[in-house]
Automatic annotation (TrEMBL), chain A:
Record-stated family: Belongs to the bacterial ribosomal protein bL19 family.
Identification of the protein by name: Translation protein SH3-like domain-containing protein
Keywords, ordered alphabetically: Ribonucleoprotein, Ribosomal protein
Organism whose genome encodes this protein: Lentinula boryana
A Pfam family of this chain: Ribosomal_L19
Coiled coil regions in record: none
TrEMBL record, chain B:
Source organism of the structure: Lentinula boryana
UniProt keyword annotation of Iron present: no
Domain of life of the native organism: Eukaryota
UniProt cross-references to InterPro entries, sorted A to Z: Ribosomal_uL3, Ribosomal_uL3_bac/org-type, Ribosomal_uL3_CS, Transl_B-barrel_sf
PANTHER family named in the record: 50S RIBOSOMAL PROTEIN L3 (PTHR11229), LARGE RIBOSOMAL SUBUNIT PROTEIN UL3M (PTHR11229:SF8)
Subcellular localization(s) per the UniProt record: Mitochondrion
Protein name: Large ribosomal subunit protein uL3m
Keywords: Mitochondrion, Ribonucleoprotein, Ribosomal protein, Transit peptide
Family: Belongs to the universal ribosomal protein uL3 family.
């Protein structure tokens, strides 16, 4: 056990030394306040440099793995856990209002630019929020209630803006918030 | 506005920092034989009066980035495809003023599909044959050696650029789409001409249609300049430039990118006025001069991004 610990610390120290050598940031003299991202570990393959398959590669690499799983599971067309329009969804945000629950009126699928519109009535005022899934402010998304009978008969439920009775019927008695 | 033709009196710079490689037979140069290649070292520091060369890139598409404050920025991705210098052009006009330019070529092309004339031109510059060849006019101190390969590091995140490209062709279009005409009413007796232009002139005076009358014709497919697009991110490993906003043209089209003319002119005037803080945009301290090359990119970080130079819109104001 002790020998394992000793081995672990020795390898970690050498590993940390190698990472410090790799993590040397080259100076950028043209802008003092520019953000310098970490260098890619491997140079990109030649077809990408020629432009073949560049945009799908960027769609994958400009997002974090957590966001990619969120996009794939909640907004992928063939996912079992996908969000349907008409479901009630709660999100946790990093800026005010920090949590927002609402009915999904519309889902706009654009790869990493995917967004959804949530509608709720707060203190007798209808409030809608368009939330971009890939935004760093969106911490997590949770489905609170699925739509009645599995799915609505429309992809975009903008008619709910003018019929509060249908909104109420959708919400039912369940006024859940995510905890 | 900073005008390049106003360099009539700056003849002293020519003999010092010019390396003219375009030959006597090149049709663009008038009296290039008088100028010899210079052995003097090139000035390598950007000044507010200098105008750098631009690059030729390919528009790859649009995507979206979220900046450090979490704000969404729609971006266009441009990629440099082996963009190299093929010639330095100096022309003396009849009124003794000089025209200086850098000829840039991009996108390699198979040798057998290049004409003999162009093969000779590229052989002289010692570069692969290319699909597109364009000139960028510069000040005399911004010449770049022939054969230099450019990198995306030429642009600094935070600066502004102009993009020139051929817009998407719309075909033959009517007045409503082409000129924003209002058309006619949908009902109340209008017969068959709901989208027509209506009247095209007066009566017996002038008794004709003025030249230049806005009418239906082919729309789009023209050279368009979009000014003052901010450079959001630069990636020299894939030679990508991310610009905030939209760029004319279809995906994979060739576009010319250069420093924003109007903003650099304003910066030059601010320098003359003594407002040294307003010469370059916020956050930009210097620009690679005369150009950002592949060799320079190896010494600099690969992926550089500009932060949002404003207060966060997500933090409520007091």
């Amino acid at each position: 056990m002790l020998s394992n610990l000793f081995k672990w610390t020795a390898s970690s120290s050498t590993r940390s030394m190698s990472t410090t050598v790799q993590a040397v940031i080259k100076p950028y003299p043209f802008s003092k306040t520019a953000i310098i991202h970490s260098e890619p570990y491997v140079p990109p393959p030649a077809p990408l440099v020629q432009g073949k398959g560049l945009m799908p590669y960027l769609q994958k690499n400009l997002t974090t793995p957590e966001k990619q799983t969120m996009l794939r599971e909640l907004f992928g067309r063939h996912s079992t856990k996908r969000i349907y329009p008409g479901s009630i969804v709660g999100v946790m945000l990093e800026h005010a209002p920090f949590t927002f629950t609402g009915v999904v009126l519309a889902i706009r699928r654009r790869g990493i630019d995917t967004s959804m519109v949530l509608r709720n009535v707060i203190q007798r005022t209808g409030v809608e929020m368009q939330l971009f899934v890939n935004s760093p402010h969106v911490k997590n998304i949770k489905v609170i209630q699925k739509p009645p009978k599995g799915r609505m008969k429309r992809a975009k439920l903008y008619y709910l803006r003018y019929s509060p009775e249908k909104m109420g019927a959708l919400a039912g008695s369940k006024k859940g918030t995510i905890v | 506005m900073l005008r390049l033709w106003a360099l009539k009196h700056k003849t002293s710079l020519i003999s010092k920092c010019l390396h003219n490689s375009s030959s006597l037979t090149a049709p663009t140069t008038a009296t290039s034989s008088a100028l010899t290649s210079a052995n003097a070292p090139l000035p390598t520091k950007w000044t507010p009066e200098s105008i750098r060369t631009g690059l030729i890139a390919r528009k790859r598409g649009m995507t979206v980035l979220w900046n450090d404050q979490g704000a969404r920025v729609p971006v266009t991705v441009l990629q440099l495809e082996n963009c190299q210098v093929t010639a330095n052009i100096v022309t003396i006009r009849q009124d003794k003023s000089e025209y200086h330019a850098v000829q840039v070529a991009a996108s390699d092309k198979p040798l057998k599909r290049t004409t003999r004339q162009m093969q000779g031109h590229f052989r002289k510059a010692k570069v692969n044959p290319k699909r597109i060849l364009k000139e960028f006019s510069i000040t005399p101190d911004a010449h770049v050696p022939v054969g230099t390969t450019f990198s995306a590091i030429h642009f600094v995140p935070g600066q502004y650029v102009d993009v020139i490209a051929k817009s998407i062709g719309k075909g033959f279009q009517g007045g409503m789409k082409r000129w924003n005409f209002k058309g006619l009413r949908a009902s109340h007796g209008v017969s068959i001409s709901h989208r027509s232009a209506g009247a095209t002139g007066a009566h017996q005076d002038p008794g004709r249609i003025w030249p230049g009358k806005k009418m239906a014709a082919r729309m789009g497919g023209q050279r368009i300049t979009t000014q003052n697009l901010a450079v959001v991110r630069v990636d020299s490993s894939l030679n990508l430039i991310y610009l905030r906003g939209a760029v004319p043209g279809v995906d994979d089209a060739q576009v010319m990118v250069r420093d924003a003319k109007k903003l650099t002119a304003v910066g030059c005037h601010n320098q003359a006025k003594g407002l040294y803080e307003k010469v370059l945009p916020k956050g930009v301290d210097d620009l690679p001069f005369p150009a950002g090359t592949l060799e320079m990119a190896k010494t600099l970080p690969s992926i550089v991004e500009a932060p949002a130079y404003r207060r966060s819109p997500f933090v409520p104001q007091e």
